[in-house]
Amino acid sequence: MNAMLRPADTFPGLVTRDGARWHYLDSAATAQKPQSVIDAVARALGPDYATVHRGLYARSAAMTTAYEAARRSVATLIGGREDELVFTKGATEAINLVAQSWGVAHLRPGDRVLLSQLEHHSNIVPWQLIRERTGIVIDVCPLTADGLIDCDAAERMLTPAHKLVAFAHVSNVLGSVLDVPRAVALAHRVGAKILIDGCQAVARLPVDVAALGCDFYAFSAHKLYGPTGIGALWARADLLAAMPPWQGGGSMIDRVSFAESTWAPAPQRFEAGTPAIAEALGFAVAADFVRHAGLARIHAHESALVAQTRDALGRINAVRLYGPADSAGIVGFTLDGVHPHDLGTILDEENVAIRAGHHCAQPLMAHLGLPATARASFGLYNTDSDIAALVRGIERTLRIFA
Ligand SMILES: Cc1ncc(COP(=O)(O)O)c(C=O)c1O
């Protein structure tokens, strides 16, 4: 029994079609779902199903209450308030929302945005789209030798022309953890806002946006043991209140006429159309699930798995490890003479699932001088047996390629 899990915490996705244990080491791509989340979504789509914010009948009123309670629950998980939390399709949409709304309203030609070399494409491309519209300049903060965003370099690079810093809290390739309070202090010192891409952090570390001091925090439910199709943007209330809408439609308005329309207050102003109702309820159950497990405990569990994996892989001559020793839940590596895709395919035969490729971080791959890496990433359900299966699979791969 995994000490992280209660007897009631079952994950139907962790079993293969033959009933064997699936050694799932791809939680950084998407986490498997506890039965409680699956049940919550099924209930919301089944006996409890109704629309929100519109219906006058009792079930719709109950669903509206549940939907808004879900917002409160998700906001609380990261130390935020419900009026500061916008439901989005995921982290990607959350970052695009900031770019298209706050960015278009505030960025002028010649203004600068600081990103880092390790960002996911979701925190690069939205800013390139805004560069085309506004004429901003994008700067790229380098990494330290062990793959951390180099805050000393950021300090040297930042100027009053910088209006935004947008950094990942945890790298999806290297697992490196940003010193967020330092990055926040550096950004604020030059008057810039700071967006943190928390996609890989929320399921791995205790996060408290108020204590971190950031301006925007973006994440997805599906990496937090919740459903796909929903995520969140947390933004400081004063910033959110001043941001213009970025998509128009139902739900986000106050009054509409052909002459002009006026907007609902935030966060509704940013949720045009019928929302992802069942997914929001599943998101809240996922937030409760990690709250009960305890993010400090999850972090300690995954850190122990990372240390054990790095130690075991470090004993294999052909393995090259990337990222810092204290990475959060993610181990990036390559095998000399074996393409990561070949490794991934052979491991699949052993019921071991890893990710191999550029991980939607091509600028980081270019920096590493690699076309691809292999990545083992953990969730709270992983145990020693998953690491043992990974090591066996790597040894078999090396025998095949020898
Ligand atoms: C660091 C990071 N940022 C952003 C994203 C995008 O998340 P989503 O595809 O759920 O919107 C991911 C997903 O892999 C990620 O790892």
Structure description:
The protein has 402 residues and is an alpha/beta fold. It has 2 domains: 127 residues, Aspartate Aminotransferase, domain 1 (Alpha-Beta Complex); 253 residues, Type I PLP-dependent aspartate aminotransferase-like (Major domain) (Aspartate Aminotransferase, domain 2, 3-Layer(aba) Sandwich), CATH 3.40.640.10. The chain contains 13 helices and 15 strands. The chain has a 7-stranded mixed β-sheet with strand order 2-8-7-6-5-3-4, with helices on both faces. The protein has a 4-stranded antiparallel β-sheet with strand order 11-12-15-14, with helices on one face. Strands 1-13 form a two-stranded parallel ribbon. Strand 5, helix 6 and strand 6 form a beta-alpha-beta unit. The protein is globular. The protein starts with 22 loop residues before the first strand and ends with a helix. The mean pLDDT is 97. Pyridoxal-5'-phosphate binds next to helix 3.
